[in-house]
User: Fold these one by one.
Assistant:
Number 1:
Amino acid sequence: DGMHRLRCLARGLHASAVRRLDDGERRIADKLRTSLEATEVDVQDQSGGCGAQYAVSVVSERFRGLSLVQQQRLVNNVLKDEFKEIHSLRIFTKVPKKE
């Protein structure tokens, strides 16, 4: 509802400059890291700790050869149980560079 979103925004404005993963961010990061064998994962709760809006960045070899849409579907599939609480999810995917 509108008041919930307003409280989320207010919390976000008062968030500490020091970045630590909260429980929701940690849970999502662990799922992505494990399920996609990701070499890099970054999760940010963009709702100020409410868990309503997240941005995730994932680097995984599993994305190699897949279209961007297919990569994002993989991420969505991993997080399908989280969608009960998440209202917005921004997904950034990347294939690791070959050495």
Note: The chain is about 35% helix and 20% strand.
Number 2:
Amino acid sequence: MSNIKGKLIAVIGDEDTVIGFLMSGSGELNKSRQPNYFIYDKNTSLAELEEAIKSFINRDDIAVLLIVQYVADMVRHLIDNHTKITPAILEIPSKEHAYDPSKDFILKRAQKMFSADDFK
């Protein structure tokens, strides 16, 4: 994984979540001046959201994509079909919406790999 050096974390979520990450210093622009964040609000169309996810998934400078779970639910078809190692897509809670582990595709994949007997 030495080729991950210098890669970015991207964030897709509501304004409060994204601004929180930006305040932590995670905001960046790539060489093409594309930001590593996308703010979803009630005026964002599904097409705009899908384009943002596809853009982050296809960028070679993104190692991890953090997405607020309620937004991820809107584009579940794109997330469930993502099979590349990077970027890793991680679902996170938002201030307004609780995290539901039963919807998290990473946990679903992990559960398929292990049975309950593996932990006895």
Note: The mean pLDDT is 85.
Number 3:
Amino acid sequence: QEANVQRLREYRSKLVVFPKHAKKATKGWVDSAAPDTVTEQVTGVVMPDISASKKCKARAITADEASAHTVRMLKAVRNDSRLAGYREVQRKAKQAKAEADALKKAN
């Protein structure tokens, strides 16, 4: 992630944005009327593609990977995260009810 942030910072440092309408220029845009802002269009590779160098080689699927129920596992994890708040509320309600019942029995 840090490499991606660095790549985006480098991209933004090289970026030149000209306003569509000169009267509506906002912060960070280049004033097209100023003579020192003349830039030329870059052709070819502007920034190198770093993702091309990190390709993984294909490999055979192991017996553990083949026997794992990946879709079922992912669905269970997704449901657990989706229902976490609901289950917390239900747990607190059950705990409050148990405390109320214990209080009734004590009296």
Note: DSSP finds four helices and no strands in the chain.
Number 4:
Amino acid sequence: MRVLTDDTACKPTRANIIGGMKWLVKNAAPGDSLFFHYSGHGGHVEDTDGDEADGQDETLIPIDYESAG
């Protein structure tokens, strides 16, 4: 299990969130169950591929969003 929090050395930065997602799926196999929980800020951007009924894709906003996007 990996935990990223504002209170620890492993902060929820863009790089750490992406790294955590890659770690989660790295050895996944058919039939595996994976769990990802995010409790933080989010946002919306325009849906560019038409798969969202409301026309918006949801986003995660990392702690370093101003410098890392």
Note: The chain has a mean pLDDT of 94.
